[in-house]
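Structure, all two chains, one model.
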Amino acid sequence: MMSNTEILKKEIIETFGTPCPVIDLDIVEKNIARSQSLCEREGKANRPHIKTHKSPRLAKMQMMAGAIGVTCQKLGEAEVMFEAGIKDILIATNILGAAKSGRLAALQKKVALKVSADNKVSLESYAYAANYAGRAIDVLIECDTGQKRSGVETVEEAIELAKVIKDEPMLNFTGLLFYPTKRSWADTQSFCSSLIPALKEIELTPQIISTGGTPNLANIGKLRESTEHRAGTCIFNDRMMIDDGFASLEDCALKIYSSVVSRAGINRGILDAGSKTLTSDTGNLVGFGLIMEHPDAEIVKLAEEHGFLNLESCQKKPDVGTVVRVIPNHACVCVNMMNEIVAVRDHKIVEVIKVEARGLLV
Amino acid sequence: MMSNTEILKKEIIETFGTPCPVIDLDIVEKNIARSQSLCEREGKANRPHIKTHKSPRLAKMQMMAGAIGVTCQKLGEAEVMFEAGIKDILIATNILGAAKSGRLAALQKKVALKVSADNKVSLESYAYAANYAGRAIDVLIECDTGQKRSGVETVEEAIELAKVIKDEPMLNFTGLLFYPTKRSWADTQSFCSSLIPALKEIELTPQIISTGGTPNLANIGKLRESTEHRAGTCIFNDRMMIDDGFASLEDCALKIYSSVVSRAGINRGILDAGSKTLTSDTGNLVGFGLIMEHPDAEIVKLAEEHGFLNLESCQKKPDVGTVVRVIPNHACVCVNMMNEIVAVRDHKIVEVIKVEARGLLV
């Protein structure tokens, strides 16, 4: 007799073929509830980052579970979320290039956005867009405390930007945006402890202090003044989150169903999931995904539609035609590869979910 | 006065925003003509691989220039090409997982496809699809001569598969599929020199002997019996092709227009093109792309929507707001990230081209 897992595999391959991204909605719901409660436990609001799923359907599940709004990384994502009826949207990057296209103004006209900036040029373009939209725009100042990505590095620079915002009638000073590294929460606290009084001196008070990252859900209590958190990956989890200790195998909602399509050598094989499915993003792990049925098989290399398997340490090597479930290293970039993902519940296909906000130019 | 390049940048950013993939149609046409003539010079037919552009619009330009048909890597790509009116389609992978979904049969019913296989399970599924379609399917046997990807490694294995094809009325033995490495053309020749007489003994003659790869356009004369070549990247070229010596900067048709959106440190900056634009595929090069305006700036790391710039060796460091053109390491995976690419000619935007065959499940 076939197991439920084998029956589902057969259904997936006969309905869609492989490679096929599949999410388990029961796990998704559990994951959503968990991140919501991790935020609530510390008295912080939850503003999930939708860059992981890019799907209004899943964003709405997060809102229903108690999220106050969503975080987007691109203007196109914000447009899709607004069209789907979500009104409280934070864009957590300098969207300078997209802002210049006039699309920021067009969206700001329809809904009061929250944007972020770490420099004056971004502020200028936000003011321009707000003017054009006829509605002042809410701005968070992005501060860096260790990522060395974007974000001002000093309190002085933050104050300088805050003054520009204060002096520009079409910009509302709204708050601060942080993305602490695991080790920089103390630095983030001291940054805040210096910045908040300095802001007070120029009569500004942050209404929002935002932190980010799924692994950081364990740390959000460490910044006293923070008001909300933006985490993305936790809705699906992935091999990086297992490696981090945030998630277990059972918490991984996303699996890439893939077929072994070649076994040309005794110790090697080919999956039909390559870099256009799993992506070349290793997330600093060894190999490009975890094969649930063969954890001792290694995905050592990717071509565009080929996943190269090293089966040397593999006790029972999979035959050609075998369907396996791969937990990707990084769920967010993986979901971004497909127009649709298949949703299952209790080993049955229940839905096809559109990844609507993917593939957009800006 | 602004240069034509600067005027185009302004137009791109004001019309679309950044990041924005842009192709120059004049260069595309020159590249198409070049690959066509490289094939013709050696008396081989040209069957371009459309995985690079995934666009019927561009495939038709290749057909108009003399291509005999197209190569696809996925069933979904073949479906899109057929719908666009292209009839001579080779799928150059074991499409086992996709075949099981019934979609291979549905397409084979509409058009006589050429498929490839390196194992009996694939052959079974092709025969099943052909039966269902009511039309025998043309099969090429994939042979490996050094890639260690898919493809049988020995003449004996090839003959074994050929016999299966011969005995199955719904499979037509059509030919051989090779993807020689740069160093394995002599091996490929000797493989062919042994295999062809062995096939003759069982009364089979390959009508098609196919080789692949853009850098290999320089080598196609080295396999006497080959009849056609499948190259993808050469339509756009990229940093890998420059590194290989196949292309120069002037041959690169695809540029990712991107804005410097942050300069939070003296020697670092952030582009708005990250792993969801440039992809994490380095193509074994250092850095994630070549910035035309700042070749001494290095894209050292990617987050999903952030490209991390190391500007240490950069003489004139770009300010926030600067728009740059990035030549990606690997064009094929990069184009695959976007629903559309912008086409220009003589520094003017002329068209938006849909990347129709991307993001499909199988």
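The longest helix of chain B spans residues 25-41.
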